[in-house]
Every structure is written in C-alpha cells, then in structure tokens.
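Q: what sequence does this backbone want?
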C-alpha cells in the first residue's frame, strides 16, 4: 500500500497526479502547511527536510520505503509500474529527460520566485518582481515554441516531462493564462482531460 503525504501545492499535486496515473491504491494524508504540520516531530521522521510531498511504499525494495521530493516520487512510481511515461525509445527518452529536468530545475523555481515576490513577500521588491515576471514570460515563450511541433514535450505521447511541467502551469494559470500561449493551451487541455489528472485535482 502507498501512503502519500500531501498538500495542495504544485509539488504536492505533481506527486498525487502520478499516484493516480499508476492506478495503485493509496492513502492520502493531508499535511497542512498553514498549520505548520510539516514541522511536527512525526513528519520530520519521514523527511528531515520537512517538505511535502512524501510517498511511503510499504512494499518497496527491501520493504518499507520512504521517498520524499516530487521528482523522485514520479521516477520511483514510473519504474515501479514499468510505466510508458518513461519512453522505451532511447532518443525519446533523452528528450523526456531534458524537458523533465527543465521543468523541475528551471521552470518550477522561476515561477516559485515570481509567486513569492508577487504574492507572499511581506516586502515590496519591484526589481525582483519585474525580473522574475520577465524571466517567467520567456520560459513560457520557450515551451510554447517547443510544443508547436508536437502534442507533448517528448513527442506525441505523454511522459514524465509533461507532469514535470503541468502542475506549475496550472498553479500559475492566473498569472500566465495558457490562453496567451496557443500551443501551451492545446497541451494544457490535453493533459487536463486525463482521468488521472481530474482525480488528482478533485477536492480532498
């Protein structure tokens, strides 16, 4: 059995979507960041870095296995289920790894900084807000151009690369509406229509 420790952030939804995609049974454990539940002693035993999400697999390699961090959770579940979200074709696999890394290491952090300085910072820092907004718009231009010749990030089949980016595009859809980027919009609608995504974003 899987246990997913989750809150409604982009990283939380990234992991929950992947669990739903596998079809494996799981228990969902909300961890309220507003109540600082991630700092509790019990949660720190799961993840010393006190971050969500965390996946616990009672039937992992060698027994109970704890997997923190959403990229690791996506990779772990894809390998566990021999998922087609990891392409078998080597060339497509390279493309998937490239865009999965882009989503996690570039796209997500820049949007997070935009979100912090625009919505959560107690100090108004116009220079930072302008910098990260400009940077984010450039990233959207990049992914919009890439999606102009394909349905998904690694060709015409969905892969981990798409789930590496989707949660952030959805999280910041009010700041950067997919409608402003036609190819992103088509991709966004395709991914949003997947049953696993609809289940993952259902109210807790």
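A:
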């Amino acid at each position: 059995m899987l246990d997913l420790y989750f809150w409604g952030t982009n990283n939380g939804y990234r992991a929950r979507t992947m669990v739903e995609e596998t079809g494996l049974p799981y228990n969902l454990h909300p961890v309220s960041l507003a109540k600082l539940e991630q700092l509790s002693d019990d949660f720190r035993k799961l993840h010393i870095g006190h971050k969500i999400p965390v996946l616990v697999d009672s039937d992992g390699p060698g027994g109970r296995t704890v997997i923190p961090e959403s990229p690791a959770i996506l990779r772990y579940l894809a390998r566990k289920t021999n998922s087609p979200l990891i392409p078998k074709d080597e060339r497509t696999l390279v493309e998937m790894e490239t865009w999965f890394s882009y989503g996690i290491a570039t796209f997500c952090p820049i949007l997070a900084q935009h979100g912090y300085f625009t919505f959560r910072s107690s100090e108004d820092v116009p220079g930072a807000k302008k910098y990260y907004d400009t940077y984010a718009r450039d990233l959207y231009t990049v992914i919009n151009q890439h999606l102009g010749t394909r349905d998904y990030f690694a060709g015409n089949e969905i892969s981990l690369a798409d789930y590496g980016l989707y949660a952030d595009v959805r999280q910041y859809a009010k700041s950067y509406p997919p409608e402003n980027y036609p190819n992103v919009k088509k991709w966004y609608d395709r991914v949003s229509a997947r049953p696993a995504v609809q289940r993952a974003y259902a109210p807790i």
